[in-house]
Amino acid sequence: MSQARPKTQSRRALLASGTGAALAIALRPVRAAAATRTESTTDAIRRFAGEAPIAPGRVTLDLPPLVENGNAVTITVSVESPMNEADHVRRIALFNEKNPQPNVITVHLGPRAGRAAITTRIRLADTQRITAIAETSDGRYWSASADAIVTLAACLEG
Amino acid sequence: MARTLISVPKTAKAGDIVTIKVLISHPMETGFRPGHDGRILPRDIITEFTCRFDGEEVFRAELFPATSANPYLTFTTRATKSGTLSFTWRGDNGFDQTETAAIQVT
C-alpha cells in the first residue's frame, strides 16, 4: 500500500475487493455444478438403450464403496454370459449420476472376447450411484448399480 | 508420442482367454475445469480406443471425460492363432497413436 493514497480510500478498496472475492468463492461451486451438467442420466441411458426395457441382473459392478480419491477409482464390470456366437454381450456402458457428463465409458465386445469383463479407472465428482448397463446379442438390456461415497472429489475446481 | 504400457502374454494355448492390460499417459483434460486464470481449460481427451487382431477389431471403447487421466483398461480376448495385436488411441486435437504386440499361440 502506497503512502500517497488516502488511508480511507485504500480501506474502502480493500473491503470492496474482499467482498467481491468472498462472493466469487461462494458462487463458484454452484455456478460450476449448474452450468456443467450436460444431460440427465436417464436421457443418456435412453440414448444408449433406446426404448428397450432394462432388467436388473447378470451384471456385476465392483467398485470401492468408500472412495478416498475421486480422480482415479478402479471399477470392474462383468456380465454373466457364455460369450459364444449365439449368446454374447455386445456393449457395456457405465453411467454416473453427478459428474458434469453422465457417460463414463462404453465398450464394444463380441464373442471373441471370451469373457465379458472390463476394468478401468474413472473420475467421480461427488458421492453418487454408478450404473452399468449391458446389451446382449438377443437385444436385451441388463443393469446393475452401486453406490460410492467420495471423500475427495475429482477436481472440477482447478 | 505418449508413453504406453501394454501387457499381453507372450504365449498362449489355442482357445485360451488372454487378459490384456493397456495404459497410455494422457492428461484427459475434462473441459469442465477452470485453469489458473479462471477460464475453462479446453477439453483434451482420448475419445476412442480400439484393439485389433491382424486387422480385425476385437475390442473397442468410447471414452468420456469421466475416464481418469492416463486411461487404463483391462479386457480379454480368445487366442486363436499367432499374430499381432494392434492398439489404437484416438482423441481430441488429432491425437492418434498405435502400438503393437505379438502373441505366439501354440
Brief overview:
The complex is a heterodimer of chains A (158) and B (106). By secondary structure, chain A is α+β, with helices and mostly antiparallel strands.
Topology, please?
The complex is a heterodimer of chains A (158) and B (106).
Chain A: H1 7-36, H2 41-49, E1 54-56, E2 59-62, E3 66-67, E4 73-79, E5 89-95, E6 103-108, E7 116-122, E8 128-136, E9 141-150
Parallel strand pairs in A: 1-9, 3-9
Antiparallel strand pairs in A: 2-4, 4-7, 5-6, 5-8, 8-9
Chain B: E1 4-7, E2 11-12, E3 17-24, E4 46-53, E5 56-63, E6 72-78, E7 83-91, E8 95-105
Parallel strand pairs in B: 2-8
Antiparallel strand pairs in B: 1-3, 3-6, 4-5, 4-7, 7-8
Could you please describe the fold and organization of this structure?
The complex is a heterodimer of chains A (158) and B (106). Chain A is α+β, with helices and mostly antiparallel strands and 158 residues long. Chain A has two helices and nine strands, in the order ααβββββββββ. In chain A, the strands form two sheets. In chain A, strands 1, 3, 5, 6, 8 and 9 form a six-stranded mixed beta sheet that branches. In chain A, a hairpin with a 4-residue loop joins strand 8 and strand 9. Chain A is elongated, with a radius of gyration of 23 Å. About 8% of the residues of chain A have low confidence. Chain B is mainly β and 106 residues long. Chain B is 0% helix and 54% strand. Chain B contains no helices and eight strands. In chain B, a hairpin with a 3-residue loop joins strand 7 and strand 8. Classes of the chains: A alpha+beta (158), B mainly beta (106).
